[in-house]
Amino acid sequence: MYLDFKVKIPYDAAGITRKKIKGITYIYYAYEHNYNPEKRYTIPRNTSIGKCTEDDPEMMYPNTNFLKFFPSEELPETKAEAYRSGCLRVGTYLVLRRIISEYHLDEMIGNIIGKDSGLFLDLAVYSVIAENNAGQYYPEYAFNHPLFTEQMKIYSDSKVSEFINSITRDHSLAFLDGWNAKQDHKQKIYISYDSTNKNCQAGDIDFVEYGHPKEDTGAPVINYSVGYDENNAKPLYYEDYPGSIVDVSQLQYTLEKAGGYGYKNVGFILDRGYFSKENIHYMDKCGYDFVIMMKGMKELVKSLVLEVKGTFEEDRRYSIRDYRVSGITVKRQLYPSDEKERYFHVFYNDRKKSSEHEAIEAKIDRMAECLHKHEGTKYEVTGGFARYFDLIYYHKGKKDEKFMYGRERHDVINEEIRLCGYFVIITSEKMTAAQALEHYKSRDVSEKLFRGDKSYLGNKSFRVHANESVHAKIFIEFVALIIRNRFYICLKEQMQKSGKKNYMTVPAAIRELEKIELIRQSDRGYRMDYAVTAVQKEILKAFNMTAANVRTQAAVINEDLMKIEKEG
């Protein structure tokens, strides 16, 4: 991220070099030198600190690395223009401020961050409202919104970068300790645990590694996971770890952290990516219950499905109407050496059967077409063709070998078709199939949380240049997730009362609330431009707010701004 002001290139510092890439001259700084005993010379470690301006070769636009390696440089802290917009969007801000107060986030962040806690909350709220996490656009957001900062100061992007670099791991750990200490540890809860990964458009970050991203752009990634309290509908904790570590191997460390936060009487709801014998054994050892989706159609799952197939699908006693499925429960050991019997919940869905059957037919058709094109040629068939086709060759293994044709293996294909529409969930605790599915489906909220994180908070990737900046952005992002999640839950509960409406989604509600504006008039005072609309009133109901609340709080904002202007 390049900052929006110029500084003189520090030629008096050793290790400054230039490199021209596609017509742009970048300034590099050798921040470390390592001696290579084999080559017998010192190898510098360089990082970009800015890019040269077009009009003056002695000046550059710095990035956040410049702030890190040249902290003594004096930089502008606030925008030169002291005024703010004549039109302030206050609706969403007032709602999010209520959520922050409800969770006492302002007090917690204030105790941890100190005098700049307002800027921290502004960055979190900015992520939610503007659906963006790029620091260089924050001043634009701050220009037309009320702020949590002292005297509603509009800070420049250089101050934002400096602030983000000042946030440490100790700050985030203190917040997680305090946040989890506030939760009810006596209540039995199920924690939905899920992870995602983020591309990182950065250089000098130790734990950015190439891994197995869900959206592969060819960039290195950071893994990021969240534990979500299904019972009380709130995020509990997060963790970030190197991109090369797979989900299944990270779970045991996560379970240890849950215990460290004081969660003893809990169960975990896990996706199939966490399924392994070692993880099941470890959860047993820790005394944690679990709800987990089985991976694919392993032999155990196949035998279970075929055993109960035809006994429950058309029997209304097994119908789970809320999810349009049928389900039955069977007790079995998970593996031969398993010391406990588990509860296997087998489900069947007509729509799932139809879509999966069609997917199999389409796959076989594509394979058959591919094989047909190569008939009579010297062609070595690879991949998964041998599973579904007997591959017939002429003079196999000889110089004149040719692929002749593929013959469908009907027994294999028919077996897959017979299993279409079925899926299996395993629980350690005794419960009905309906209860198991209800628990697992609660993961939808945590999955929406990640979709909100990437799509609505603008956090598909990190644009930072140091370990500290990444950890700080993830910390701010987690607080933003807490706020946005509460916003989502309130809207969802209101929809259940009043019926589904298009404007009760998070993005639509934010767009509608952003229309509540304060207009600056000739006396320099800010007043509402028009009354709260019927749609806005319906949205405000979700947060136990009324039009009168908005008018009262708008008047207070005006008083604060008038006072700031007089003092300024």
Average of pLDDT? 84
Query: How much strand?
Result: 15-25%
Structural class: alpha+beta
Segments where pLDDT lies below 50 for 5+ residues? 199-214, 453-466
Number of helices: 19
Q: Give me the Rg, rounded.
A: 29 Å
Indicate the overall shape. globular
Largest sheet: 10 strands, mixed
Helical fraction: 40-55%
Number of strands: 20
How far apart are the first and last residues' alpha carbons, in Å? 31 Å
Description:
This protein has 568 residues and is α+β, with helices and mostly antiparallel strands. The chain has 19 helices and 20 strands. It has helices at residues 64-69, 91-102, 105-113, 117-130, 138-143, 157-166, 169-181, 247-260, 277-286, 299-308, 350-373, 385-388, 410-418, 433-441, 443-456, 467-498, 506-513, 534-541, 547-567; strands at residues 7-8, 16-21, 24-36, 41-52, 59-62, 87-89, 189-200, 221-229, 234-242, 266-270, 289-293, 319-320, 325-333, 341-348, 389-394, 402-408, 422-427, 461-462, 517-520, 526-528. Strands 7, 8, 9, 10, 11, 12, 13, 14, 17 and 18 form a ten-stranded mixed beta sheet that branches. Strands 1-5-4-3-2 form a five-stranded antiparallel beta sheet. It has a three-stranded antiparallel beta sheet with strand order 6-19-20. Helix 2 packs across helix 16 (467-498). The longest helix has 32 residues, at 467-498. The chain is globular and about 85 Å long. The relative contact order is 0.12. Mean pLDDT is 84; it is low at 199-214 and 453-466.
